[in-house]
């Protein structure tokens, strides 16, 4: 990833513009951490080779062109450790939703809090958005904590919001307005 376009967050942590060439490494990151990731992400089981990751990157790049998505690869010391994206971008109403995941070897280091803050800055300052939302499984303590650490306000819990592994899951919803962003 030495020649990828990236936005430095600190000396080791950066957001990288995705390319199709990253699909294999992205798959390897997911594949090496299946048990951790699949607890809250249902795409893990269908990711059995690099092709689904390649399809995902293509879909997100097409969304970037259409103005509906913005994907960033999270890199630490030039190695992929996760992803964050803005999706459901609604330019008419100036809002979007954030989604993110991180390899378990890199959790509890404050990385995701820094990454979310940077993506919020991009959304508010560069893209002209006014509201960002995060939806997190009620049992995903880390994801809920990241939202709160970044100044998102708890809006409420959507009961039985999604079905994952044949079970209804509750999601907490958080929002952050541009006026409240530090």
Feature tags:
5 helices, alpha+beta, eight-stranded mixed beta sheet, 182 residues, 35% strand
What does this structure look like?
The chain is α+β, with helices and mostly antiparallel strands and 182 residues long. Helix content is 31%, strand content 35%. The protein has helices at 23-31, 34-38, 50-66, 111-126, 141-149, and strands at 6-8, 13-16, 70-76, 79-90, 95-102, 131-137, 153-164, 167-177. Strand 3 and strand 4 (79-90) form a beta hairpin. The relative contact order is 0.13.
Summary of the model, kept short:
The protein is α+β, with helices and mostly antiparallel strands and 182 residues long. The protein has helices spanning 23-31, 34-38, 50-66, 111-126, 141-149, and strands spanning 6-8, 13-16, 70-76, 79-90, 95-102, 131-137, 153-164, 167-177.
| Approximate shape | globular
Tally of helical runs: 5
The assigned structural class equals alpha+beta
Strand order in the largest sheet: 1-2-3-4-5-6-8-7
Tally of DSSP β-strands: 8
* Share in helix: 25-40%
Percent of residues in beta strands: 35-45%
Calculate the mean pLDDT score and round it.
95
Outline the biggest β-sheet: 8 strands, mixed
Head-to-tail CA distance between termini: 31 Å
Low-confidence stretches: none
* Run of helices and strands: EEHHHEEEHEHEE
| Rg result | 16 Å
List the helices and strands and how they pair.
Layout: E1 6-8, E2 13-16, H1 23-31, H2 34-38, H3 50-66, E3 70-76, E4 79-90, E5 95-102, H4 111-126, E6 131-137, H5 141-149, E7 153-164, E8 167-177
Parallel strand pairs: 5-6
Antiparallel strand pairs: 1-2, 2-3, 3-4, 4-5, 6-8, 7-8
């Amino acid at each position: 990833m030495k020649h990828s376009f990236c936005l430095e967050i600190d000396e080791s942590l950066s957001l990288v513009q995705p390319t199709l060439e990253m699909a294999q490494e992205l798959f390897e990151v997911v594949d090496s951490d299946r048990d951790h990731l699949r607890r809250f992400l249902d795409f893990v089981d269908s990711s059995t080779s690099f092709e689904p990751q390649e399809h995902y990157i293509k879909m997100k790049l097409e969304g970037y062109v259409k103005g509906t998505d913005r994907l960033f690869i999270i890199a630490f010391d030039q190695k992929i450790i996760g992803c964050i994206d803005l999706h459901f971008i609604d330019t008419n109403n100036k809002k979007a939703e954030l989604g993110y995941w991180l390899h378990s070897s890199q959790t509890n280091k404050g990385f995701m809090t820094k990454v979310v803050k940077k993506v919020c800055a991009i959304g508010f300052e560069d893209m002209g958005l006014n509201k960002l939302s995060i939806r997190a499984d009620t049992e995903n303590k880390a994801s809920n904590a990241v939202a709160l650490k970044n100044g998102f306000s708890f809006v409420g819990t959507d009961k039985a919001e999604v079905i994952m592994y044949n079970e209804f899951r509750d999601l907490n919803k958080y929002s952050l307005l541009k006026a409240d962003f530090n």
